[in-house]
Amino acid sequence: MTENEFYKNYEVPQDLKFRTADILLLGGLNCSAKLAPQYFEDLFTLPNKITQVHVELEFWPTGKEIMARGRVWGQRQVRCDRCLKETSQTFEENFIDSYSTQSEIIDIMLLVRQTLALTEDIQFLCSAECKGLCSLCGKDLNEGPCECRPEVLSPFAALKGKFK
């Protein structure tokens, strides 16, 4: 099998563990893969979860190291922190790292998992304009106003009626 045939037939491992010898033999490697979401089930707090993950990877040797650059993107299902509706969000992040040519395996999965963990927002919103739920009746204010009249809490409310 020639180097070109080997490169064309290179199958990206789902666990993203690459043999260093393969990358060195090819003089580098460009590949992409769709990964199974179950590899990332424990990254986000429920009910938020990753539903699609894609990676593009590029490896190139530089003397005693192999550089790895990648892009990870996909979709996650999240619950809005204001109105509690489930919504889908896209994410995309780039990463770069180096690995020794002395190691037998280059495990990119850890790097991908760390990169995905960094994409988690502090607050998930279905939209920037989300009005949330009424604090009294729980109605979704995105669907229209509710009939509640919120109490105006004033520090001077206790004095009302004391002075005439």
Folded structure, characterized:
- This protein has 164 residues and is α+β, with helices and mostly antiparallel strands.
- It has one domain.
- The chain is 14% helix and 35% strand.
- The chain contains 3 helices and 6 strands; from the N terminus they run αβαβββββα.
- Strands 2-3-4-5 form a 4-stranded antiparallel β-sheet, covered by helices on one side.
- The longest helix is centred in the last third of the chain and has 10 residues, at 109-118.
- The model is unreliable at 1-8 (pLDDT under 50).
Kindly state the number of beta strands.
6
Low-confidence stretches: 1-8
- From the alpha carbons, calculate the radius of gyration and give it in angstroms: 25 Å
Number of domains: 1
Termini gap = 99 Å
What composes the largest sheet? 4 strands, antiparallel
Provide the spatial order of strands within the biggest beta sheet.
2-3-4-5
Average pLDDT, all residues: 85
Q: What does the overall shape look like?
A: elongated
Order of helical and strand elements: HEHEEEEEH
Give the percentage of residues in beta strands.
25-35%
What would you call the structural class? alpha+beta
Report the helical percentage: 10-25%
